[in-house]
Amino acid sequence: MAHHKYVVAFRIGFQSSLEYRFNFFLSLFSAVFPIVVQYYIWTAVYASAGESGLFGYSYQEMIMYTIIAAVVSKLVITNMEHAVAEDIKSGGLNKYMVKPIAYFGFRICSFIGQRLIYVVISLFVILALTFALNSFYKQHTGFDRLLAFFLSLCLSVILSFLISYAICACAFWLSEISYFFVVTSLLVNIMSGGMFPLEIFGEGLQQLFRFLPFHYMIYFPVNVLNGKIADGQIWQGIAGQGLWIGLMLIVCHLAWKRGMKRYLGLGG
């Protein structure tokens, strides 16, 4: 029954998502305003440019990217940084040190439980948006791409958790972490393609971003669905997601191992 405690952690996270599901719908609704703003911005940009394509995207592809990326970004964001930092600062980790459950195992099982219903709801929203956009712009997204998108989206959620968990380890060294989380969240969102396609940053920065794991969080799954990534490159990208998940597991282990050496456990 060693695994039972992690099932309980999953159940706690799932129950939490049911209790606060209104927050999820509210966060989805909050994505509408920036989508509308970007719609008018890109419409004006394409109209003034007088070209059918900019940054390698047609107008239809850019609008579809903007809308789907806004929904995906709401899904992959963990929002757990402050809770983990509070456990570190207040001594909340103490109970995980004396109980037969690993803090990482508790957090990831709870996170998967919290995200399960969000993934299901978001998939329905994304499928509905894809069908509507395809009908409006007379495009076609094949079933094979939908399956590849679903797989890449699940991997991006896991990768996002690991990146956030590694960033949370900075709380062992920084006394005031709130502003650091704000800055890192903004940078991660930009480098992951949550605000704009990475192509708008130019070839140099785009190549730099491709050597980092962030573009696998939003940019890659959205462009799988959008049709911008060739069929032969989809599985290479999914393999890249798996590779980065493995590397981030190592980074998280090393960062938290060093951090725990500085942990004082006060207040727990």
UniProtKB/TrEMBL annotation:
Signal peptide annotation: none
Membrane-traversing stretches: 20-42, 62-84, 119-137, 149-174, 180-201, 238-256
InterPro entries cross-referenced by the UniProt entry: ABC-2_transporter-like (IPR010390)
Pfam families: ABC2_membrane_6 (PF06182)
Keywords: Membrane, Transmembrane, Transmembrane helix
Entry protein name: ABC-2 family transporter protein
